[in-house]
């Protein structure tokens, strides 16, 4: 029996119509590439032309924490497949790099943003002392160990599917999308490791992904990492609306609520909100959607939040602080008001890198951002996070909290939520904080 790889599939000259099904068009047997390890296990005397066997000469001086060792032990017992769920700042990147030294095979590390793959590339290069390839961000260099964006790994799946025996999918919840799931299907890689801080998705797509990447093999929360993250405290601060804003908010909120009640729509998550959007293609629905946007904008951008932000920045003067908002306009308003850099999706890559370097070196101590720092970007020294506005996503909240939890001697961290009193923002705040302790060994 002979097998080889072609365009995201395994081709064979024989099969069983179970794992390998006969394809009349090519007069041969075919299977999706992800079934490669199952084929190898099931059939004997295979002439395997899928991968070029090559053990990498790599090692590192990485010392794992006990929970990192346990996670990799469980992953290896699961046939080197599955996802490890750890909070931001718990060392997922180090864990992934150590896994590469365990297997010593060709590896592709996939991450959602250019910033993240560059961070992976730099850490891999420093810890393994080897040249690292990069696909994405204007680069297309393939090496034994290569980093790639999800976009590039997806677009080149048919060509890259037999180049790497090991896939590391950082922020693996991104791979649960319909398009990116093709990466998991079209790569023949027998070894697979997913990394994320928040595994479950509201659409439950992670359950489908388990068929291709393996399920969750290990999970740890902030409350179990006392010795490895900085002490922190979460403080919710109610901010009163002006009398004029309160009236305008209430008027628009009632229009929105009345429409939901008239259509018997209950909002308990993103899927329910999508249902509302789908029913809003009528005059009443459009009015309700506009009212929702207006009410949300009033709650998110209350004038008194800026006043309170001024107080918090004064209280924590000199401490490295990230100010988060849900929209770019607020980030630029804060930038203008307090003369601090703003980082949004519109900020060029070079400028983002420059701001992060200045922040790391202490040349600037405050960054205003919309959602660009919510996920993955390494900001190791921040100790204060201020949320001006945000979604009800627990994932987003945990990521924002994680920005301030990297430990250093004597460090205490604070996350402040500025929430407009008497608005739906309170419910949003409760939803996103679900399951997150308000603090560990904290001092008010």
Quickly describe the structure.
The chain contains 16 helices and 20 strands. By secondary structure, it is α/β, with parallel strands linked by helices. It folds into four domains: 2-36, MutS, DNA mismatch repair protein, domain I (3-Layer(aba) Sandwich); 66-220, Rossmann fold; 231-241 and 303-440, 3-Layer(aba) Sandwich (Rossmann fold); 243-299, no CATH class.
Word description of this protein:
- The chain contains 16 helices and 20 strands.
- It has four domains: 35 residues, MutS, DNA mismatch repair protein, domain I (3-Layer(aba) Sandwich); 155 residues, Rossmann fold (3-Layer(aba) Sandwich), CATH 3.40.50.300; 149 residues, 3-Layer(aba) Sandwich (Rossmann fold), CATH 3.40.50.300; 57 residues, no CATH class.
- By secondary structure, the chain is of the alpha/beta class.
- Helices cover 39% and strands 20% of the residues.
- The strands form three sheets. Strands 9-8-10-7-11-12-6-13 form an eight-stranded mixed beta sheet. Strands 16-17-15-18-19-14-20 form a seven-stranded mixed beta sheet, with helices on both faces. It has a five-stranded mixed beta sheet with strand order 3-4-2-1-5, with no helix packed on it.
- The C terminus is likely disordered.
């Amino acid at each position: 029996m002979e097998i080889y790889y072609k365009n995201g599939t395994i081709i064979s000259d024989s099969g069983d119509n179970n794992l390998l099904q006969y394809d009349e068009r090519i007069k041969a047997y075919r299977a999706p590439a992800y079934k490669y390890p199952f084929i190898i296990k099931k059939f004997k005397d295979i002439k395997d032309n899928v991968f070029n066997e090559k053990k990498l000469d790599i090692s590192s001086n990485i010392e794992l924490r006990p929970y990192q060792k346990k996670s990799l032990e469980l992953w290896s017992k699961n046939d080197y497949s599955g996802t490890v769920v750890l909070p931001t700042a718990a060392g997922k990147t180090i864990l992934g790099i150590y896994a590469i030294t365990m297997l010593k095979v060709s590896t592709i590390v996939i991450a959602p943003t250019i910033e993240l793959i560059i961070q992976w590339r730099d850490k891999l290069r420093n810890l393994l002392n080897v040249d690292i390839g990069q696909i994405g961000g204007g680069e297309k260099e393939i090496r034994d160990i290569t980093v790639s964006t999800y976009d590039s790994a997806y677009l080149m799946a048919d060509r890259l599917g037999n180049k790497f025996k090991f896939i590391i999918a950082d922020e693996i919840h991104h791979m649960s999308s319909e398009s990116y799931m093709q990466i998991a299907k079209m790569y023949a890689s027998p070894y697979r490791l997913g990394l994320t801080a928040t595994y479950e998705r509201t659409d439950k797509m992670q359950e489908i992904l388990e068929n291709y990447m393996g399920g969750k093999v290990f999970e740890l929360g902030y409350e179990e990492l006392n010795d490895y993250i900085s002490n922190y405290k979460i403080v919710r601060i109610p901010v009163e609306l002006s009398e004029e804003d309160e009236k305008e908010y209430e008027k628009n909120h009632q229009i929105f609520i009345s429409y939901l009640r008239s259509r018997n729509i209950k909002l308990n998550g993103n899927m329910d909100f999508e249902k509302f959007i789908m029913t809003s293609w009528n005059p009443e629905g459009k009015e309700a959607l506009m009212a929702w946007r207006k009410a949300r904008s009033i709650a998110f951008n209350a004038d008194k939040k800026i006043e309170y932000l001024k107080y918090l920045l004064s209280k924590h003067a000199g401490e490295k602080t990230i100010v988060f908002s849900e929209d770019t306009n607020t980030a630029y308003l804060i930038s203008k008001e307090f003369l601090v850099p703003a980082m949004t999706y519109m900020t060029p890559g070079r400028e983002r890198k420059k701001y992060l370097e200045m922040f790391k070196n202490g040349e600037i101590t405050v960054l205003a951002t919309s959602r660009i720092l919510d996920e993955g970007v390494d900001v190791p020294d921040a100790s204060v996070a201020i949320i001006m506005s945000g979604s009800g996503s627990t994932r987003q909240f945990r990521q924002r909290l994680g920005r301030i939890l990297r430990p250093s001697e004597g460090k205490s961290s604070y996350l402040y939520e500025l929430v407009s009193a008497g608005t739906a923002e309170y419910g949003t705040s409760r939803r996103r904080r679900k399951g997150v302790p308000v603090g560990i060994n904290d001092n008010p």
